[in-house]
Amino acid sequence: MSFAESLSPRSLHAPESGIVEVVNYARGRDGLIPLWVGEGDLPTPDFIARAASEALLRGETFYTWQRGIPELRAALSRYYARRFGANLPAEHFYVVGSGMQAIKLAIEALVSPGDDMVYLTPAWPNFAAAAELSGANPIAVTLDFTGGRWQVDLDRIEAAITPKTRVLFVNTPSNPTGWTATREDLKNLLEIARRHDLWIMADEIYALYHYAGGRAPSFLDVMEEGDKVVFVNSFSKNWSMTGWRVGWIVAPPEIGQVLENLVQYSTSGVPQFLQQGAIVALDEGDAFLQANIDKATKNRDVFCDALIATNRVETLKPDGALYAFLKIDGVTDSRRTAIDIVDRTNVGLAPGTAFGPGGELFMRACFLRDPAQVAEAADRLARYIAAR
């Protein structure tokens, strides 16, 4: 028996990332414009990094609060009051080691092996993989793509729910599609969850990247006391902190001890000096965040306008998030096309095959980068599309 054959079936079933496959194929090429992963090109700003560095030098390197240091949980409470108009005391917040860990721990808390988790697709592949690694069954419900825009089909969601369903996972604004639920959509989704006694897991990481102005609608706007909603989020996108691996969960205090226990048996907490930087991001980072939003807004327009002008890209400008999810005429295998685009244009895109059912014919581009690079990438891609 080989080493691999002796591993657990669950671990062997963990899929290779279709995004990372393309990244590894082209990593390090001279002149490459990388639009494949979901992050900007700016490092963490100095005022945030300095707060963490100073805490590190002060010796804040010991075991710490499993739920997050009180100062950070209080800062999260202030942030939600300011940005969401929500009165959530600090005991609703749980600091974890990245948005990805927030998703994994929330799934561990809400589902048992054999349970179903319904989610909307195309979707970031880690949602389904995290459910599978926890022994749950991810049930994909495809969004409708009509006239260049994405919409949710409530009847399709209802039809996917069975007695085994425990969670409805909703990512809005969506990675990769940019679909952004309206307030009415959220009310309807919440009503479905109430009717079937489901938890909603809400990934609202891109809530402030909303191109109609202001933040996107949130479940916090429509939920009532007693609704079973858990939020997962991250510092990564707003404040250029992807490499920090710090995220948070918003959940009823009643399940706080369960979440603390899951943190204990995974990472045993987030380093305290990193949490000090996170506090500064929340309290002093609005100007930096707004600059990121402004850059994303301008880049979205430049990038999408150039490609739509080819008359061979069906996708319209996304309503939210950081991605153009492009449906290009003639693309039938987005994985193969992503490799071809790298070779012919030196632009890195993520293949839609990485994002599950409904994504096979699409290509994802992250436009939170230097405007000159985004404009150059759009020009290269437009010429590539015109020559197909």
TrEMBL record:
The keyword tRNA processing does not apply. Keywords: Aminotransferase, Pyridoxal phosphate, Transferase. Its cofactor is pyridoxal 5'-phosphate. It catalyses: L-aspartate + 2-oxoglutarate = oxaloacetate + L-glutamate. Coiled coil: none annotated. Its EC number is 2.6.1.-. Residues 34-381 form the Aminotransferase class I/classII large domain. GO terms for molecular function: transaminase activity. Pfam families: Aminotran_1_2. NCBIfam families: PRK06108.1. Belongs to the class-I pyridoxal-phosphate-dependent aminotransferase family. This is Aminotransferase. It comes from Shinella curvata. The lineage of its organism: Bacteria, Pseudomonadati, Pseudomonadota, Alphaproteobacteria, Hyphomicrobiales.
